[in-house]
């Protein structure tokens, strides 16, 4: 076990992926010499060379479009989109090409492409640097979408994503890049938690909180605060958004009777909408209260000075818990 | 690798040593006052930029994109605009904004995070800063098509449009589409590219194998390279391209060959990708020093003039600093303002819920913002 930041854990995971398979490539803006704007690819170009870790021209559609071609040629590209708000120039290549080619080719063309996207707010950035675009991709069949919330998962999940024969959109919670956790670099891959499975990260009996990425820590802190009020909250880290693994959520809600979904993205047609609908279908008779959502508002991401108002925080989560118990 | 400074092959009217040279295609006749005016502009925008960088270092701005080294490209092109012309900037065009009469504090609002760059583009004929690389080139082209449809081209009183972009931006699909559109419709738009040699860390050769100005030919419009550290040359070249555009001759591409002396933004670490020798070479080509030498050599200005400008710069910097510190945080509820021109009922309902929720935190009588008034003990963000 080594203690490291999420950024370092991802770096170690990427290093291992490059080591394991010589067909693995990293490509993106400033990923080489600079090591990425968040230094997630720090040192990789130095050790693996410019032909494996590629500083691309400044063109996102180009990054994904060429990754598709490289994948058709047998490579496994890991693309970095510098910030969430800059994935849209690549959106057409992702949803119209990357997501559909396996289907169109009757499975003859596999596109093992990973697209890493630092996402979410909370770092005081300017416009287009704090968005949560996950729902656009979850809505597109043919893509898999995952997000890690801590260094241990960052280390294993990035390697699992690279090993996947399907395209994976890999969301990294940028405001958690600098938070540390224990990472076991030695554990064999067979022992890793499966990629497409949610995980109970704090057991509890009174109500369930479910969320992913940057909100996991917020939920854990909320659960701790609620414990002081005598409420025992279960916290589930979704980890995988497509496919969505709701079995642990169903099981939890059947015990607790209450569910609160938390995410930064706007509420309307966000992950919370889907989860609320499915949990209502499956657990209707176990629910003591409607499924509640704590989310960003249905507005553009606001200027930095207002992001604390916009982002779900401990107070808003606890408020929802109160409302749930009020039913 | 960045391309080394071309000794010939770009338009230059003032050598790095401050000698006035002549160019048969692009000459300008300037009055003494105009020369001094250029100098004043260069010094003032550099000073505002330095102040903003300092404010960022002190935690007063979230980020700053410095124009250090690019003053001549921006002031030359900016002064070439006529009042009726429209400019579409990136996030670095503080010097152009200055030429358009935009208050320097304006950019600070965005970088401080009190708004997203709110402005009426028509007030100064200066569009809002664009952060998504290249997006503004299409907007400029469309605007220019509108100018054309309005019959505002074809004579000296016509309107022209200028789009600013970086060398990195030339790789974007949007920029290439803008070139295609502008050419196909002969839109009155000038693409002004500041080739400052780097995107963030990627040098120009990661975007192109031919000098950028030569790309224009493939799209079917003229491209010209100008010494971007020479304010007279950037002025002459831009004025000419804008005039051609306003007379109905269609688009043009200008590559201002210059250098970013500072970091890409305050969150960048240029020591990771840049060699010190390069910086030294460019320091000798400084846009302000060469105009200063010229003014002295021609006896157009003496110590009094320079002192006066420095004093004015000090005053301006102090005003910018004070203004920045006084910028109030927006009221929380403004999150919901202006999402739509015609507000929707669901969003107004969200506003109400937000208002009711926030007021719980103020009920204690403490008027401070919610984050500092935890509702529960142990509550923190
Ligand atoms: C579509 C898009 N992708 C990535 C970024 C992140 N980014 C911001 S500035 C920049 C480099 C821009 O280089 P250039 O166009 O040469 O302009 P400069 O900043 O050098 O003036 C990058 C990659 C962005 N803002 N927009």
Topology:
The complex is a heterodimer of chains A (327) and B (381).
Chain A: E1 2-5, H1 6-20, E2 24-28, H2 44-48, E3 53-55, H3 60-72, E4 76-80, H4 91-98, H5 101-104, E5 114-119, H6 134-138, E6 144-147, H7 151-163, E7 168-173, E8 180-183, E9 199-202, E10 207-211, H8 215-228, E11 233-237, E12 240-242, H9 247-256, E13 259-266, H10 271-283, E14 292-296, H11 307-310, H12 314-326
Parallel strand pairs in A: 2-3, 2-4, 4-5, 5-7, 6-7, 10-11, 10-13, 13-14
Antiparallel strand pairs in A: 1-8, 6-12, 9-11
Helix pairs in contact in A: 1-7, 3-4, 8-12
Chain B: H1 32-57, H2 71-80, E1 86-88, H3 94-99, H4 105-112, H5 121-124, H6 135-149, E2 161-166, H7 173-185, E3 189-195, H8 215-219, E4 223-227, H9 231-246, E5 252-257, H10 276-283, H11 287-297, H12 303-326, H13 345-362
Parallel strand pairs in B: 1-2, 2-3, 3-5, 4-5
Bound molecules: thiamine diphosphate.
Thiamine diphosphate sits between chains B (92, 131-133, 166-169, 194, 196, 198-200, 260, 264) and A (29, 58, 60, 82, 86, 89).
Describe this structure as you would to a colleague.
The complex is a heterodimer of chains A (327) and B (381). Chain A is built from twelve helices and 14 strands. Chain A has helices spanning 6-20, 44-48, 60-72, 91-98, 101-104, 134-138, 151-163, 215-228, 247-256, 271-283, 307-310, 314-326, and strands at 2-5, 24-28, 53-55, 76-80, 114-119, 144-147, 168-173, 180-183, 199-202, 207-211, 233-237, 240-242, 259-266, 292-296. In chain A, α1 runs parallel beside α7 and α3 runs parallel beside α4. The mean pLDDT of chain A is 98. Chain B folds into two domains: 14-326, Thiamin diphosphate (ThDP)-binding fold, Pyr/PP domains (Rossmann fold), CATH 3.40.50.970; 334-363. Chain B contains 13 helices and five strands. Chain B has helices spanning 32-57, 71-80, 94-99, 105-112, 121-124, 135-149, 173-185, 215-219, 231-246, 276-283, 287-297, 303-326, 345-362, and strands at 86-88, 161-166, 189-195, 223-227, 252-257. In chain B, α7 links the parallel β2 and β3 (189-195). The longest helix of chain B is centred in the N-terminal third of the chain and has 26 residues, at 32-57. Chain B starts with 31 loop residues before the first helix and ends in a 19-residue tail after the last helix. The relative contact order of chain B is 0.16. Residues 367-381 of chain B have low confidence and may be disordered. At the A-B interface, α8, α11 and α12 of A face α4 and α13 of B. Thiamine diphosphate (TPP) sits between chains B (92, 131-133, 166-169, 194, 196, 198-200, 260, 264) and A (29, 58, 60, 82, 86, 89).
């Amino acid at each position: 076990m080594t203690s490291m930041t999420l950024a370092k854990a991802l770096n170690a995971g990427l290093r291992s992926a490059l080591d394991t398979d010589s067909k693995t490539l990293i490509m993106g803006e400033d990923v080489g010499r600079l090591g990425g704007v968040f230094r997630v690819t720090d040192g990789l170009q130095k050790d693996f060379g410019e032909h494996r870790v590629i500083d691309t021209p400044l063109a996102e559609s180009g990054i994904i479009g060429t990754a598709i071609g490289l994948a058709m040629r047998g490579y496994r590209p890991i693309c970095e989109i510098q910030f969430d708000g800059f994935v849209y120039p690549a959106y057409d290549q992702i949803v119209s090409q990357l997501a559909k080619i396996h289907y169109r080719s009757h499975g003859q063309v596999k596109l093992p492409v990973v697209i890493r996207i630092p996402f979410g707010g909370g770092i005081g950035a300017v416009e287009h640097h704090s968005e949560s675009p996950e729902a656009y991709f979850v809505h597109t069949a043919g893509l898999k979408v995952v997000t890690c919330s801590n260094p241990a998962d960052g280390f294993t999940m990035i390697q699992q994503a690279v090993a996947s024969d399907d395209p994976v959109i890999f969301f990294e919670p940028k405001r958690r890049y600098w938070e540390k956790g224990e990472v076991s670099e030695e554990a064999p891959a067979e022992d890793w938690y499966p990629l497409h499975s949610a995980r109970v990260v704090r057991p509890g009996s009174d109500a369930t909180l479910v969320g992913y990425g940057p909100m996991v820590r917020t939920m854990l802190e909320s659960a701790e605060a609620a414990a002081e009020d005598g409420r025992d909250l279960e916290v589930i880290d979704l980890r995988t958004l497509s496919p969505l693994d709701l079995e642990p959520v169903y099981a939890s809600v059947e015990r607790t009777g209450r569910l609160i979904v938390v995410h930064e993205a706007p509420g309307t047609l966000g992950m919370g909408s889907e989860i609320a609908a499915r949990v209502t279908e499956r657990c209707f008779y176990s629910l003591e209260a409607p499924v509640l959502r704590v989310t960003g508002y249905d507005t553009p991401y606001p200027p930095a000075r207002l992001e604390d108002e916009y982002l779900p925080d401990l107070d808003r989560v606890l408020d929802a818990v109160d409302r749930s118990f009020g039913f | 690798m960045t391309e080394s400074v071309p000794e010939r092959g770009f338009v230059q009217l003032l050598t790095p040593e401050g000698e006035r040279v002549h160019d048969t295609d692009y000459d300008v006749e300037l009055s003494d006052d105009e020369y001094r005016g250029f100098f004043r502009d260069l010094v003032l925008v550099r000073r505002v930029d330095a102040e903003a960088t300092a404010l960022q270092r002190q935690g007063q701005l979230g980020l700053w994109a410095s124009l250090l080294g690019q003053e001549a490209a921006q002031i030359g092109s900016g002064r070439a605009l006529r009042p009726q012309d429209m400019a579409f900037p990136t996030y670095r065009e503080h010097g152009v904004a200055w030429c358009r009469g935009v208050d320097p504090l304006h950019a600070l609002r965005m970088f401080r995070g009190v708004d997203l760059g709110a402005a009426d583009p028509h007030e100064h004929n200066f569009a809002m800063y664009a952060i998504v690389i290249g997006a503004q080139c299409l907007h400029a082209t469309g605007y220019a098509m509108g100018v054309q449809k309005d019959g505002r081209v074809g004579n000296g009183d016509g309107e022209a449009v200028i789009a600013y972009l970086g060398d990195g931006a030339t790789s974007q699909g949007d920029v290439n589409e803008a070139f295609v559109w502008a050419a196909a419709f002969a839109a009155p738009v000038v693409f002004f590219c500041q080739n400052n040699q780097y995107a963030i860390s990627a040098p120009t050769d990661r975007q192109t194998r031919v000098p950028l100005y030569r790309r224009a030919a493939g799209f079917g419009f003229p491209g010209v390279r100008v010494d971007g550290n020479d304010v007279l040359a950037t002025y002459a070249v831009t004025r000419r391209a804008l005039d051609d555009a306003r007379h109905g001759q269609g688009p043009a591409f200008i590559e201002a060959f210059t250098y970013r002396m500072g970091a890409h933004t305050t969150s960048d670490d240029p020591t990771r990708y840049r060699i010190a020798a390069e910086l030294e070479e460019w320091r000798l080509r400084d846009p302000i020093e060469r105009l200063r030498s010229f003014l002295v050599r021609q006896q157009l200005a003496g110590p009094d003039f320079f002192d006066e400008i420095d004093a004015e710069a000090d005053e301006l910097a102090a005003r910018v600093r004070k203004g920045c510190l006084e910028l109030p945080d927006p009221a929380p509820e403004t999150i919901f303002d202006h999402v739509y021109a015609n507000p929707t009922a669901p969003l107004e309902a969200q506003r109400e819920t937000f208002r009711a929720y926030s007021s719980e935190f103020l009920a204690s009588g403490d008027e401070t913002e919610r984050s500092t008034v935890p509702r529960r003990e142990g509550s923190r963000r």
